[in-house]
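worker-03 picked up job from queue 'complexes'. Input manifest follows; two sequence lines, order preserved.
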Amino acid sequence: MKKNIFAVFLGLGMIFSTGAKADVDVDKADAFVRQVTSNGIEEIINANVSQKVKDERFEKLFNQSLDLDFIGQFVLGRYWRTATPQQRKDFIKVYRELNIKTWSARFDEFKGKSFVFTGSTPSSSKNQVFINSTVAMGEGAPAKVVWRVKQTGNSFKIVDIIIENVSLAITARNEYTAFIKNNNGNVEALIKDLQQKVNAPATSKKAA
Amino acid sequence: MKKTALFSFVSALALLTASCALATNVDKHDPNDPYESFNRAMFEFNMQLDKYILKPVAKGYRAITTPDVRERVRSAFNNIKEPISAVNQLLQGEIKRSGTSVGRFVINSTLGLGGTFDVASAWGLEHHPDGFEETLAKWCVPSGPYLVLPFIGSTTPRAFTGEIADSFTNPVYWLTEDREDGYYAYAGYVAVKTIINREAVLDLSDDLERNSVDFYTTMKSAYMQNKSKLNTCGNESQATYDFDFEIDEEVDDMEI
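worker-03 finished. Artifact:
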């Protein structure tokens, strides 16, 4: 009898744990990433509009597709807990602005390139999945680009992009937490430094 | 006999890594980067070297070549490394893949005009570069800690050992009968390859440096993450970047 009860609980536990990890619609997540890359290429890179319009479109696509509140919280690591509500708000704002400025300037480098989607990989985090893709890079081996997608209800957002095994979220987290640590745990110093980078003049769009 | 030789080699490598650790002042404040003080000093030295020598030369190379010419040169350099891949794929027991690398080298060196065109890929022979570092990783040799060496840059004991071993299987080294001439030919090859690689990342590295608040940590993190894809030791079921992305939980620094 005891064995049966144990088996029931074990079974229930397995159902719930499996359910939690698989609680993401993989097909929709895949379609979402395809749509984001397609919009980026057709409506921004290949569009015959001014650079100003391209930048505006990029900002809109960026804000719609990436969950910067979630990523920003993650990249601040343990310092998120010690930051004041105002510092958290300021950090997310400046982190968003710097990312938009950086990626907007480099987006044209995807001109003539296309993503080939190669399936998905489950994630150990609930409501998340990895959508795998490759991008042809000249005559070398294609670059592997993986999109980490988080589902909230019927909404999908990208929470990390992994290029050749390098997670942008982890890299930013390592960099920012090291900076704060070297500045005696001062989150304000990081916000100030990032703001200076946002305010610095933009560089030329693309070299030869 | 084969296993004994392999064990001896791996032990020697482990000993080398350990002696490196003992020979250098260990920076105890970060267990993930035990040589951080040394590494940061070397990183700064290499940055100056890059600023005044390598970057201007790479820019000059870009100025006098077209993107298509650079693509042809990159292709030729990729082709030179096919025999290295073939040897290492044999060491890894990947017989078919090794045959593909040999086939690619023969086809691209002839029909591909000295490797400047990748004809073999169009025939279904896919490019799969492998070096001795990949072989060591396949033999489950750990990468060891992050190191920055003067002139060489980011590396690990495993990666550096791999580079040394690859130099002896590089066809350029065996172009001449005289070993000393071979050494100089290889040194020239490395110099040109360094310029080609630097040119390829001119814009990206400028951007990274400009937008980074701690460029050393950014480079270390990216390098070690990229290398971690080799650390599966035969178990490739879970992606190395599948860290726990749960921000509500107590989290400590996540150094990779």
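worker-03 released lock.
Chain A has a mean pLDDT of 83.
Chain A touches chain B through 53 residues (CB under 8 Å).
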